[in-house]
Amino acid sequence: MYKAVRDFKGDKLASFRAFAELCITRQIITAIKTATRQKHIPLNSYVSLDKPIFDEESDRTLMDVLTGAIMDDPEELMIHREEFGYLEEKMSEILSELELQVLALYLDGQSYHEISAKLNRHVKSIDNALQRVKRKLERHLVLEEMS
């Protein structure tokens, strides 16, 4: 109402009432747009680096996975290379061809839509494949830890 009083010009053809209603309506619309704006979603939907990766009882966190240490020890490098080769071999045994393709494209940083376009599949099919990958790898890791 204050803005209507402040900005009203009596020399125009509109009445004060019509001008005030217009100002109030626009202010309400602006308030609704501001309240529903998606501007702060990244801040409000953050993922904690200390959160367990797979489930609440898991000991591994994102911080454990995101190490910044560079390995200089040749022995460590060889061990990790062998472990990586073993994981690749196991993944090719456990996962289907589609799941391997989807996982590779996803790890390359492509979105679900980009992957679905490349593989000529529905986005839901891509999501389902990634969910199966996650379940299969979790199951395999649990079995590895038990043995």
From TrEMBL:
<dbReference type="InterPro" id="IPR000792">
    <property type="entry name" value="Tscrpt_reg_LuxR_C"/>
</dbReference>
<protein>
    <submittedName>
        <fullName>RNA polymerase sigma-H factor</fullName>
    </submittedName>
</protein>
<dbReference type="InterPro" id="IPR013249">
    <property type="entry name" value="RNA_pol_sigma70_r4_t2"/>
</dbReference>
<dbReference type="Pfam" id="PF08281">
    <property type="entry name" value="Sigma70_r4_2"/>
</dbReference>
<dbReference type="GO" id="GO:0006352">
    <property type="term" value="P:DNA-templated transcription initiation"/>
</dbReference>
<dbReference type="InterPro" id="IPR036388">
    <property type="entry name" value="WH-like_DNA-bd_sf"/>
</dbReference>
<dbReference type="GO" id="GO:0003677">
    <property type="term" value="F:DNA binding"/>
</dbReference>
<feature type="domain" description="HTH luxR-type">
    <location>
        <begin position="109"/>
        <end position="136"/>
    </location>
</feature>
<dbReference type="InterPro" id="IPR014284">
    <property type="entry name" value="RNA_pol_sigma-70_dom"/>
</dbReference>
<dbReference type="GO" id="GO:0016987">
    <property type="term" value="F:sigma factor activity"/>
</dbReference>
<dbReference type="InterPro" id="IPR013324">
    <property type="entry name" value="RNA_pol_sigma_r3/r4-like"/>
</dbReference>
